[in-house]
User: What shape does this take?
Amino acid sequence: MSKTYYDPADLRKFGNITDWNEELGDKFFEYYNSVFKEGALSGREKALIALAVAHTIQCPYCIDAYTGDSLKRGITKQEMMEALHVAGAIRGGASLVHGVQMMNKVNKLEM
Amino acid sequence: MKKSLQARNNDLANTSRQLEILSNGIFKDELPTFASKISKTNQFPLRPKKLEILQINVGYMCNQVCAHCHVDAGPDRKEIMTKETMQQCLSVLKNVAVHTLDLTGGAPEMNPHFRWFVEEASKIGVTNFIVRSNLTIILANKKYHDLPDFFKKHNIHVVSSLPHYTRGKTDKQRGSGVFDKSIKALQMLNAVGYGKPNSGLELDLVYNPSGAFLPGNQQELENDFKKALKEDFNIDFNTLFAITNLPISRFLDYLIASDNYEDYMYALVEAYNPSAVENVMCTNTLSVSWDGFLYDCDFNQMLNLKVNNTIKHIANYNEEILQNRNIIINQHCYGCTAGAGSSCQGTVA
Ligand code: SF4
Ligand code: SF4
Assistant: This one.
C-alpha cells in the first residue's frame, strides 16, 4: 500500500475514535447526529452547508462524505458547485476585507 | 442506442459469472456474507410468509436501455411471455388470494398480448393491479398513445420510474431525451385523472439513485420531487418509492467498470438493517418469468435462481408446497436491507 496521510478507507473507521475515549466519543457522535437531524433547517440545507464547510476546512474525509450525502439527497451538481462558490466567496472575501487593515496601516505609516 | 449486456456478449450476461463475483472477493475475508449476517439475528434461512403479491414479468424487451437496469432489458431482448403462459398465470390468479398483481418487464406494454392479459386479469378482480410503466413507452409509438385511457379503464395502479426531477440526472441514467418524454407522459396520465386528488387513480413514482450511492430518506425525496414537479411542470403524483440499486446485471457492470464495486458493497453492508429483513419483498411475493418459471423475486429471476422447491413452473402451481421453501439468498440481498430497506414498493422498515 502506498504511504499517504489520507486513506479513503479510514473514513469508515471514524467510529473507532470511541475506542480510546468512549465517553467523549459517544458524546461527540450524539451531538453530531443531532445536528444533522431536520430542524429549522432541512436536511438538504444542512448537507449543502456541510459540503461548503468541508471544502473550506479542506477535509478530504468530509468532502467524500458530504458529496455522497448530497447525491443521496438528490442534490444536483449545479447546486453543489454553487454552495462551493459561496464558501469560496466568503474565503476570498475574508482575505480581501483584511485589505482595509492593510490600507489603514499604509495610510498611517506613509507621509 | 446502447445494447444489452447480452447483445454485447458481455461477461456478466452470464449469471453464474455474476454470482461468482458476489460470492468471492471481499466476501471471502473482509465482509460477512448475507447468510451469516442474517444468521446473527436468527433470520436464516429466510422463509416466505403469506403470499400477497404475484409479480409477473411479461418480457425483457424494452424501448429503453437504462444504464442501471437489473433486467438487462432493451430493444434487442426477445424474451416475451406467450399467451399460453399468460393463460397459466390467469388460472393461478383465479385460485390464489393475492391482493396485488404486479406486471413488469422490460416494458410490459410491448408484449403483443399485454392488453388482452390486462383485460382478462382485471376481470378476476385483484384489489391492487399494478403496471410498471417506464413512461416513455406511451410516446414511443402512436399505438401506445392511448395507454393512459386504457390504464384508467381497467383501474390500473401505474408505477413509473423517474430517477430525478431534473433533466440532466434522468437522461444520464435512462438515455437522452427520456426526461422530456417522461414529463409529457406524466402530464398525459394527469390529464385523465392519474395522481389527482380523489380520482382513485394511483400514480406512483420510483426513484433510484443515478450512481454508486444509496437512496436518501424516502419522505424527504418525495417532498422534493412533489415540489419540483408541481412548480416546473404542474405534475401531480401520489407516492414516491425510493429503491436501492441492487448489485446485479448492468448496475453490477457499471459498479465494476467505474471501480465502485467494493465501496458500494461496503456501503450496503454498513447500512444493513436487521428490521428490514422481516419484510423483504420475497417474504410475500412470488415472481414469474416470461417463460413461466417461478422465483423468489425479480432479482433472483435475473440471476436465474429458480425457487428452491419441487415446483418450479406456474403450470404446476401449488401454493402449499411452494410456501414451504427456503428463499435463495446471496450478497445482492444486501440491497433489500440497507437503511430503511428497499422493495418494489419502496422502503420496508
Ligand atoms: S430500467 Fe426499466 S425502462 Fe430501463 S431498460 Fe430496464 S426495464 Fe427498461
Ligand atoms: S434480493 Fe430477492 S431474495 Fe434477496 S432479499 Fe431481496 S427480495 Fe429477497
